Automatic annotation (TrEMBL), chain A:
InterPro entries: DUF2975
Taxonomy, superkingdom: Bacteria
Keyword Membrane included in the entry's annotation: yes
Protein name per the record: DUF2975 domain-containing protein
Keyword Coiled coil: no
Alphabetically ordered keywords of this record: Membrane, Transmembrane, Transmembrane helix
UniProt cross-references to Pfam families, sorted A to Z: DUF2975
Transmembrane segments: 20-41, 68-88, 109-134, 154-171
From TrEMBL, chain B:
GO molecular function: DNA binding
SUPFAM superfamilies named in the record: lambda repressor-like DNA-binding domains
Protein's UniProt name: Cro/Cl family transcriptional regulator
Superkingdom of the source species: Bacteria
Domain HTH cro/C1-type: 14-62
Gene3D superfamilies in the record: lambda repressor-like DNA-binding domains
PANTHER family: DNA-BINDING PROTEIN (PTHR37301:SF1), DNA-BINDING PROTEIN-RELATED (PTHR37301)
């Protein structure tokens, strides 16, 4: 916090950060539930995920180890995102407690940016593995390796890189703030 | 660092307490204490001017360069 910052702005930062803290908590829960929902709630898949590299019918046809292995692989991007969101949640908690220009919340933002990049890069790979696992039981010639790449991935990669750059800039701001504090 | 703060000497010369000076120039006693002990990275011109005004002295009376080598 600097003396030049308006008290109203800080109050807004605190208030909005508290809301976003709980938003992140809900998003983390959603990340854990999204794959089971895709699997067990019929009809949800069409509107929820255009990233699916296999059909829901193929998924439902799976059994035994294939079912659980596919589910686990499908969950990898969600788990990476949950990890990133947890850091984002910690950042908002710090902001809501007036810990703003400090290294800790900035590090959390950087980790979120990296998680976003890793998740976006992991998505096509896990999608490909999912398609292999889901069609593994089919006879030779009908098995499939499907990779899904779209404009959404490019946008998310850009967003991840943007967040990392912003985190670097904030790191510099924190350093300057620390320097200002050491002046009397 | 080679800059030595002679604020304590000036305060003694002017028979003024740190607490009073801090109150007059509008900084905390803690910060003034840090300045007196030289444990700060820098002094703002604004602070330096306020101290000089209150103690009726020049910046050179408060700061001195000592070669470490």
């Amino acid at each position: 916090m600097t003396t030049a910052t308006k008290p109203d702005t800080l109050q807004n930062v605190r208030r909005l950060s508290t809301v976003l803290y709980w938003g992140c908590a809900l998003a983390i829960i959603f990340q854990f539930l999204v794959v089971p929902i895709i699997w067990y709630v019929p009809g949800w898949i069409e509107t929820s995920s255009s990233q699916m590299t296999v059909s829901i019918a193929d998924l439902h046809a799976l059994s035994g180890w294939q079912k659980y292995a596919t589910m686990l692989v499908m969950m990898i991007p969600s788990l990476i995102m949950a990890y990133g969101l947890n850091h984002l949640r910690k950042m908002f908690r710090a902001f809501s407690r007036d810990i703003i220009f400090q290294p800790a919340p900035i590090r959390h933002l950087k980790v979120f940016g990296v998680a976003l990049l890793v998740q976006t890069l992991a998505k096509p790979l896990t999608g490909a593995v999912t398609s292999v696992l889901a069609t593994f039981h089919r006879p030779a010639g009908e098995r499939m390796l499907s990779i899904g790449l779209g404009n959404a991935e490019a946008s998310t990669l850009f967003l991840g890189a943007l967040i990392i750059v912003i985190a670097w800039v904030l790191g510099e701001a924190a350093r300057i703030d620390d320097e200002n504090r050491s002046f009397v | 660092m080679g800059i030595v703060v002679r604020l304590d000497v000036m305060l003694a010369t002017r028979k003024m307490k740190s607490k009073d000076l801090a109150a007059r120039i509008g900084i905390s006693e803690q910060n003034l204490s840090l300045l007196k002990s030289g444990k700060v990275r820098g002094v703002r011109f604004e602070t330096l001017a306020a101290i000089c005004k209150e103690l009726e002295c020049q910046p050179g009376d408060l700061l001195e360069f000592e070669d470490d080598t």
